[in-house]
Amino acid sequence: MRLLPKAVHALWITLAATVVAATLLVASPAKAATLTEVTNFGANPGNLRMYLYVPDRVAARPGLLVAVHYCTGSGPAFYSGTDFARLADQHGYIVVYPSVTASDGCFDVASSATLTHNGGGDSLSIVSMTRYVQQTYNADPARTFVTGVSSGAMMTNVLLGAYPDVFRAGAAFAGVPFGCFAGPSKWNSQCAQGQLTRTPQQWGDLVRNAYPGFTGTRPRMQLWHGTNDEILSYVNFGEAIKQWTNVHGISQTPTSTDSPQSGWTRTRYGSGQVEAISMANTPHNLPVQASAAIAFFGLNTGGPTTSPTANPTTPPPGPGGCTAAFRVTSSWSGGYVAAVRVTAGSGGVNGWRVGLALPAGTTVVNSWSGQFSGSGSATQVTNASYNGRLGPGAATEFGFQANGAAPALSPACTAL
Asked: How many domains does the chain have?
């Protein structure tokens, strides 16, 4: 497997050093919680190392973020050099930092194994880490996300494409589309230089063919790229937009365009399934906007707790009943993402149904962990095959993305 061309490799190393030097100005979390290495986390065909950050206080069922480092970097360097762990202290989610052991320090985003669902490679190693945390720390599958920079951004695209059943959304900082680097070598000059262009359908087919049997909701994608990127051409930004809008079956024409910061142009597509931020006059070493990524995921809602707490506006469930608590996890002009927590009474339940009185005109465009029927005030959600049986006091969550203004709801839960 060929490494990077010497000139490009040297430039990437220089940029990586600059990233570390610049971002280390951000202090590491001043908490008792520390970064810990985890071994024996499951299948590890990529021979990666796993580093884990669990804040001193976590949410009752914490969200999970996988943060993937740049080429020549490491998990510990990405932990120290970005704000994701500091934000985890504030919001109570858990962070996994995969770390490459290959001599070039780059993730495998090229092999057929890593680009195929359950095919192997680095992507499966990262999924093993993700599932380990979900099982060990009760992390919420409905709030599991991935982000990365450069090589990590390319891996973010790979994970959303090959494992849409694992990740709900991703934020890629200076990456390339899924499958753009595919081939026998880890480096693909044609893709890197922006010479590899395809139709939206062709890009979308690469993603769909990675997991042909997948019929669920595709994860949302947030894309970041500098117009002066000298390592991974800015052309890849447009190609990634083509790919992910096609995967979601939405138009390439933005539904909104704004400038959240001077020199930035943000475009949104569909009902927020794809969000793209172009950063003018910015090189490959772009500033990582951790807070913006966390907000896109909805991980910034609610503070951490030491143990599960009841929603004060929701009465406790009866012995054979259940309750449902609604919350908006993120919103934007024209749409929002929400989660509903279902809690069983002291007798447990073998199935549940939640009534959501959504405002007239609301359209649910994506959903997960529940089966939706009806519309508007008659919207009903029943359990999926895997989360209907709840023991006494146990809880599960389902979520959805909808258009319209985010409502305030008091959903009704019925045990089946």
From this structure: 2
